[in-house]
Design brief:
Structural class: alpha/beta
Order of helices and strands: EHEEEHEHHEEHEH
Strand content: 15-25%
Length: 180
């Protein structure tokens, strides 16, 4: 059974939820999927895995520092085996050019050019924010293109779960392709 690591950095938990759906999808395809929250450790031995998926969320216009550090530290291993990256941001919902720019900057910064990249929309979890963050996120949402919710009495999840599952299934299919 092929072993896949899903390493992720999350701030508010949406990236972890996406990683969990990816892991479940991979397990459904007969793969051994292990999740690693990069807050807990960055010292996982990647040689034990047949493939690696890395995920990170955008905050203040940048990917999580732990994700950047993990990729920089493991760039050689990530390049030598099937690997993929997913980026989570509100911009992935309607401003895909901006979301793509974040990935381009990440690739430039880390030197890693994953074969598969996915952009997933995140969430506005107003009911979980403190007062100041709630107001700040409402201003950010109001200034974004498209129609992001600004009713701070509720949460908005914009992640397109079928797209997350397709990303995982495409990664799994690539593992069984000739030459993989």
């Amino acid at each position: 059974m092929k072993k896949i690591l899903i390493a992720y950095g999350t701030t508010e938990g949406q990236t972890e939820k996406i990683a969990d759906v990816i892991a479940d999808s991979l397990r459904g395809r007969g793969l051994d999927a292990t999740m690693l929250d990069l807050r807990d450790s960055q010292d996982e031995a990647l040689d034990a895995y047949d493939g690696v998926i890395v995920g990170g969320s955008i905050h203040v216009g940048k990917h999580d520092k732990r994700v950047v550090d993990f990729v920089e530290k493991n760039r050689g291993t990530l390049t030598s085996r099937p690997s993929a990256f997913f980026s989570v941001s509100l911009d992935a919902r309607s401003a895909t050019g901006e979301a793509e720019k974040y990935v381009d900057e990440f690739e430039e910064q880390t030197g890693w050019r994953p074969a598969k990249v996915a952009l997933f929309a995140g969430a506005l979890l107003f009911t979980q924010y403190g007062f100041v963050k709630r107001l700040m996120m409402k201003r950010i949402a109001a200034g974004k293109p498209g129609t992001l919710g600004t009713d701070t009495s509720r949460d908005y999840v914009y992640t397109e779960w079928d797209g997350v599952r397709r990303f995982a299934e495409d990664f799994a299919a690539g593992l069984s392709a000739p030459g993989a």
